[in-house]
Design goal:
binds magnesium ion; single chain; Helicase, Ruva Protein, domain 3; Rossmann fold; 11% strand; binds adenosine-5'-diphosphate; five-stranded parallel sheet; 279 residues
Length: 279
């Protein structure tokens, strides 16, 4: 709506994992490097944690985008499974739809696990490695599902694991896994994303604007600090706030986002966007 008004080629602050907007701060490139290492070296399991909105899904998607489709077969579970059978079914279905058993008895957990094992062996024979990502894994409430994850890590040849499992979730995931020692011991790589520092929040905003086609300043210098404290340096919230500011500035026909527009955006779009209470 406001793109041409602000001389932008596209919206700069969409909450979608579009890899071209990736900010190459050290914590993101390190996380990507460590996860890539875990996958390429067949290290078994990895874990990526961080608070809501800090960029976990973005990094997990960037990892998948970087893996060649000819060399890797992967399943991305966007929400946590409710049971062991659902977990195996989701993986089998994503890896190879046609392999999904159809008879009722075969939909049982054991049969699904067997299908999955066969798939992994077949992938391995074809020279493909398998990657399974479970996003929002902190929301798994049934410990038995973590136990199923551990079972998957038992699928190995003499030289390597037949799949890499990557668990992604909010910080409480680390606590849950810590209580499951056998699983915890198999996690070869752990990454944790922090909120952005004030200087990074500013760079983040400038970077996204630049990718969207705007190099000239759009926010007044003193507004970055306000955005940082209102967002806590969480990229998802920074996006919400900046988008609201651009919309308000456009409606008020301003040529730069100043403190006044920042405050007005808070009133128009709801203080919750600015304090993050509901986010
Ligand atoms: N490193 C980054 N570079 C650019 N944008 C990012 C980055 N990390 C997060 N974002 C933005 O924040 C949004 C929310 O991040 P997301 O990965 O969904 O958070 P989480 O999965 O941790 O809740 C993303 O859709 C993206 O627009
Ligand atoms: Mg996410």
């Amino acid at each position: 709506m406001y793109e041409s008004y602000w001389k932008l080629k596209e919206k700069p602050f969409k909450n979608t994992p579009d890899p071209k907007f990736l900010c190459p701060f050290t914590q993101y490139s390190d996380a990507l490097m460590k996860l890539t290492y875990a996958v390429r070296e067949n290290m078994g399991a990895a874990m990526l944690t961080g608070v809501y909105g800090c960029g976990k899904t973005f990094i997990a998607r960037a990892l998948l985008d970087s893996l060649s489709r000819g060399r890797y077969s992967f399943a991305y579970l966007t929400s946590p499974p409710a049971s062991g059978a659902e977990f195996f079914r989701a993986i089998v279905r994503t890896l190879k739809y046609s392999e999904l058993p159809t008879r009722k008895t075969e939909l049982l957990e054991d049969a699904l696990l067997e299908s999955l094992q066969m798939l992994l062996i077949e992938n391995n024979r074809e020279g493909k490695d398998t990657v399974v990502i479970v996003d929002e894994a902190h929301a798994i409430t049934d410990e038995r599902i973590f136990e199923k994850m551990r079972l998957l890590l038992n699928f190995q040849t003499k030289e390597k694991f037949l799949l890499t499992l990557i668990m992604v979730g909010q910080p409480e995931l680390a606590g849950k896994v810590k209580n499951l020692r056998q699983l915890e011991q198999r996690i070869a790589v752990k990454c944790h994303l922090e909120a952005l520092k004030e200087k990074e929040t500013r760079e983040y905003i400038t970077h996204r604007l630049k990718i969207a086609g705007r190099e000239e300043p759009l926010f007044q210098d003193n507004v970055f600090k306000l955005i940082h404290s209102a967002s806590g340096g969480i990229p998802r919230r920074v996006n919400h706030i900046c988008d609201a500011c651009l919309m308000t500035g456009f409606a008020r026909k301003k040529d730069i986002i100043d403190k006044e527009i920042f405050r007005e955006s808070g009133k128009i779009f709801g203080e919750t966007i600015f304090t993050g209470e509901k986010l």
